[in-house]
Amino acid sequence: MKIKSKKWIERKKLKEWREACLKRDNHQCQISKKKSDRLQVHHIIPRQVKELKYDIMNGITLNFYYHKVGKESAHNNALFFASWLRKNKPKQYKYLMKKLSKGGIE
Predict the structure, then answer these.
(1) For 50-101, what is each residue's pLDDT tens digit?
(2) For the chain, what is the domain count?
(3) Burial state string for 44-68 with b = 16 or more CB within 10 A and e = fewer than 16
């Protein structure tokens, strides 16, 4: 029996998390509502926060523009993105805020 490395397990978990987010979001950018071949899944709370790294509520499907490069992208304008999330995905926003306000999340 072959022992799987931590790196292999990590990639598998991230792939499963990504696929679950894409399925939940109907394989479309949640801001533009368009389907694209450049869809990406964004960790709303950085993946360095281990408690939320594989939590589907901490992921959102975005196209390349709204994820990385646009002036209103999640990476270039966190304030816009947080405001958009609060307005358009209130359950997800409240869930993450509640998780962050609990003790123990680093």
Answers:
(1) 999 999 999 999 999 999 999 999 999 999 999 999 999 999 999 999 999 8
(2) 1
(3) bbeeebeebbbbbbbbbbbbebbbe
Output the pLDDT for position 51: 93
H or E segment to which residue 64 belongs: helix 64-64
Length of the chain: 106
Phi (first) and psi of residue 31, to 5 degrees = -90, -55
Cα dihedral: 73, 36, 43, 56 (round 10)? 140
Write down the mean pLDDT value for the chain: 93
Q: Which two tokens stand for residue 89?
A: 């995905």
Name the pTM for this structure. Answer: 0.88
Are the beta carbons of 62 and 39 closer than 8 angstroms?
yes
Domain that holds residue 36: 6-101
Quick check: is 1 in a domain? no
Identity of the amino acid at 36: S
